[in-house]
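C-alpha cells in:
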C-alpha cells in the first residue's frame, strides 16, 4: 500500500473482482455493478474518515451486500405499492383496467407460488405482516442474513416473471413507447397501402 493511500482503496483495488462476482451471485444486473461499487467505496471511505477500519475487505463486502438488499427492498416496496394501487383502483376502474390489474395480481401470486417456501414466507411475513428481518428470522428459525437473501431473491424472481409477462414496473414506459412506435408504423403502412 502506497503512503497516504487508504486501507479501503487498497482493499477495493485488490478485492474488486471478488466483489463483482458477489454482486453477480446476488442477481445484480451487470449494468448496476459499477454504481453499487462506487457507492460502496464512497460509504466505506466516509466510515474510514470517522475512524480506522480493522477489516476493510469485510467492511466493503458488508457495505456492498447492504446496498443490494436496500435496492431490492425498495423494488419490493414498489411492487407492493403497485399491487395496492391496483387493488384500490379496481373499485372504480374501467373493466379493461380491472382485468389488467387482476391479471397482474394473478401473475404475482403465480410468481410467489414458484418460489421456495422460505422465500414465500419471508416476503409474506415482511410485507403482509410488516415484520422486521430480525422478527422474520426468528419465526423461520434462520439467520437474519438468510431472511434478507430469501426476501431479495424472492422479490427479484417475482419482478422478473412479471416483467417477462408484460407486467414489469420499470420498463412500462419503454413498453408504452414501443407500442406507440408499432402503432405509428402500422398506421404508416396502412396509409401507404391506401395511396
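Residues out:
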Amino acid at each position: 500500500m502506497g503512503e497516504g493511500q487508504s486501507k479501503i482503496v487498497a482493499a477495493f483495488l485488490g478485492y474488486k473482482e471478488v466483489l463483482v462476482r458477489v454482486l453477480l451471485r446476488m442477481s445484480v444486473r451487470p449494468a448496476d455493478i459499477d454504481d453499487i461499487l462506487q457507492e460502496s467505496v464512497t460509504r466505506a471511505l466516509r466510515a474510514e474518515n470517522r475512524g480506522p477500519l480493522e477489516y476493510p475487505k469485510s467492511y466493503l463486502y458488508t457495505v456492498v451486500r447492504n446496498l443490494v438488499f436496500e435496492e431490492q427492498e425498495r423494488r419490493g416496496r414498489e411492487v407492493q405499492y403497485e399491487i395496492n394501487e391496483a387493488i384500490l383502483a379496481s373499485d372504480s376502474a374501467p373493466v379493461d383496467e380491472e382485468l389488467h390489474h387482476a391479471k397482474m395480481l394473478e401473475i404475482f401470486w403465480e410468481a410467489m407460488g414458484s418460489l421456495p417456501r422460505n422465500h414465500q414466507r419471508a416476503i409474506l411475513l415482511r410485507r403482509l405482516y410488516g415484520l422486521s428481518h430480525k422478527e422474520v428470522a426468528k419465526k423461520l428459525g434462520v439467520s437474519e442474513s438468510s431472511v434478507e437473501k430469501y426476501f431479495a431473491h424472492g422479490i427479484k424472481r417475482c419482478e422478473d416473471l412479471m416483467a417477462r409477462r408484460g407486467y414489469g414496473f420499470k420498463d412500462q414506459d419503454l413498453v408504452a413507447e414501443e407500442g406507440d412506435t408499432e402503432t405509428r408504423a402500422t398506421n404508416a403502412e396502412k396509409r401507404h397501402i391506401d395511396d
